């Protein structure tokens, strides 16, 4: 016992680390910070989980295009706790993205980024993009069909940038096409380069938190004025400051523990994302989609008109970065309380709703044909023999239904044709089917004249019951 004490004393005398840690953990913070302040530390804990599970996974992973897929299968099915670790790494990533998002929203809504904490917001924005970059590079390491195609799509998008585009695509793929070199490059970025950057920027981020102090909860009617801020803050801390540990930090501990338990539980219950088929560049019938946290952006690209894709790909991320970086420059003083900043709250609501809508669309996938569409029933068609029935049959057999809905059955890629008879004449229909259109194949060589006729007869019979009524009454006048 005595020896241990003497060792500790000797260590302390030479390093001063214990006192430093004690001072740091007990440094005074504003009172009543409350539960809104837990998301930053929870993000850090999620990142720590990523580091630990990531190191564990890397001990069995092989970053070679010939072996990566088998290595993942080995980790998933045979390695000790491999399935749980992969699951934790996946849900940890999800938690990190989610927590970064909530943390940023909270900081923005409560005006914590205002003077003197502008630079901390900037480092936070950098961390947001580094986190997303981790997600993107990590997905390729799965090296299955879906992962590989998502990266091809990503590189193709990067390649559209003027001037630097081709260079950037070449850099991403580590060559002209995707292959073993791409995997090595993504691996190096995912396990060395980006994490090193994250560690460094997190260090700065935390140093700034210590340097400027934790922001006091906003009070309506008390705007931030750089001339008086420090004086006021110091007075507040002097008068009613509480030690960070345990008065404020107990909430962080409780919430972080809940996050860890949730990640382990989700990993144990649902496991990691299923591995798709092994990558096969000649197999086009895959359905590349990024993991959920980038899915909404993917939906945005799929939904906008074709000619808009390039500008959106180029401008949207740029506008995002610029807007985020400009926030603390244009509004670093003034009111902090959300009650007196309706524009700030409104902006958050609009952005969250936009992402949620895109996300729902990404799951519904209206842009991709629905190959599971069943033939239309006789009840919908109105008869089971004659040209109507033959046309309805062709509508299914020729694949029209993969893209077009009639009476609620079929895909969403093309317009709903339930009442197309109201919109288009037989001639319009014929021209449309023969020539196809934007995102619709031309059927001129694919239909016999009598088949075309049956289809046109069937489609022109699809009218809204009330519309027919309308014509009937006006005709009777
Ligand atoms: C790959 C998906 C796809 C397939 C398969 C497809 N279409 Fe289309 N179709 C579309 C899209 C997308 C549009 C809208 C394009 C546009 O406005 O130029 C469209 C437009 C139409 C229109 C015009 C609708 C309107 O309201 O203006 C008709 C009619 C039509 N398709 C009929 C058919 C028929 C009949 C078939 C099968 C022989 C078929 N389509 C197969 C995607 C498809």
Describe this entry's structure for a reader.
By secondary structure, the chain is mostly helical. It folds into 2 domains: 26-278 and 285-364, Cytochrome Bc1 Complex, Chain C (Up-down Bundle), CATH 1.20.810.10; 378-476, Orthogonal Bundle (Cytochrome Bc1 Complex, Chain D, domain 2), CATH 1.10.760. Helix content is 66%, strand content 1%. The chain contains 21 helices and 2 strands. The protein has helices spanning 2-15, 17-26, 39-58, 68-77, 82-109, 118-141, 145-158, 165-173, 180-212, 229-240, 244-270, 292-303, 309-330, 342-364, 378-381, 386-397, 400-403, 420-423, 426-435, 449-460, 465-476; strands at 28-29, 242-243. It has a two-stranded antiparallel sheet with strand order 1-2. α7 packs antiparallel against α8 (165-173). It starts with a helix and ends with a helix. Mean pLDDT is 88; it is low at 471-477. The site of heme C has 25 residues, from α17, α18, α19 and α20.
């Amino acid at each position: 016992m005595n020896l241990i004490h003497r060792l500790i004393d000797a260590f302390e005398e030479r390093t001063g680390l214990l006192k430093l840690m004690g001072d740091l953990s007990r440094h005074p913070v504003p009172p009543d910070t409350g539960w809104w302040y837990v998301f930053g530390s929870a993000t850090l804990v999620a990142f720590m989980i990523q580091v630990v599970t990531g190191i564990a996974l890397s001990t069995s992973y092989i970053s070679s295009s010939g072996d990566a897929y088998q290595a993942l299968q080995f980790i998933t099915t045979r390695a000790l706790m491999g399935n749980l670790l992969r699951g934790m790494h996946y849900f940890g990533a999800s938690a990190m993205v989610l927590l970064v998002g909530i943390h940023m929203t909270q900081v923005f809504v409560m005006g914590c980024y205002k003077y003197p904490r502008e630079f901390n917001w900037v480092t936070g924005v950098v961390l947001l993009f580094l986190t997303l970059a981790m997600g993107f590079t990590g997905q390729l390491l799965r090296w299955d069909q879906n992962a590989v195609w998502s990266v091809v799509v990503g590189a193709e998008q990067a390649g559209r940038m003027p001037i630097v585009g081709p260079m950037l695509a070449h850099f991403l793929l580590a060559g002209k096409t995707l292959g073993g070199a791409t995997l090595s490059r993504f691996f190096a970025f995912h396990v060395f380069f980006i994490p090193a950057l994250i560690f460094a920027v997190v260090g700065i981020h935390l140093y700034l938190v210590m340097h400027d102090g934790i922001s006091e909860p906003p009070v309506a009617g008390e705007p931030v004025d750089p001339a008086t801020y420090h004086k006021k803050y110091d007075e507040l801390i002097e008068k009613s400051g509480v030690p960070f540990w345990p008065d404020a930090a107990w909430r962080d501990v409780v919430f972080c523990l809940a996050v860890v338990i949730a990640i382990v539980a989700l990993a144990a219950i649902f496991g990691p994302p299923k591995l798709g088929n092994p990558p096969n560049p000649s197999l086009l019938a895959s359905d590349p989609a990024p993991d959920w946290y980038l899915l909404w952006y993917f939906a945005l690209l799929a939904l906008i008109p074709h000619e808009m894709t390039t500008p959106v790909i180029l401008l949207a991320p740029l506008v995002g970065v610029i807007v985020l970086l400009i926030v603390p420059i244009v509004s670093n003083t003034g009111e902090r309380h959300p009650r007196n900043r309706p524009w700030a709250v409104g902006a958050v609501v609009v952005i969250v709703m936009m992402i949620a809508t895109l996300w729902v669309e990404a799951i519904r996938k209206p842009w991709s044909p629905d190959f599971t569409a069943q033939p239309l029933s006789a009840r919908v068609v109105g008869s089971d023999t004659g040209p109507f029935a033959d046309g309805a049959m062709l509508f299914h057999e020729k694949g029209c239904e993969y893209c077009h809905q009639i009476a609620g059955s079929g895909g969403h890629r093309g317009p709903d044709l339930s009442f197309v008879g109201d919109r288009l004449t037989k001639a319009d229909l014929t021209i449309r089917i023969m020539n196809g259109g934007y995102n619709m194949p031309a059927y001129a060589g694919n239909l016999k004249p009598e088949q075309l006729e049956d289809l046109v007869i069937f489609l022109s019979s699809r009218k809204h019951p009330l519309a027919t009524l309308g014509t009937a009454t006006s005709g009777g006048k």
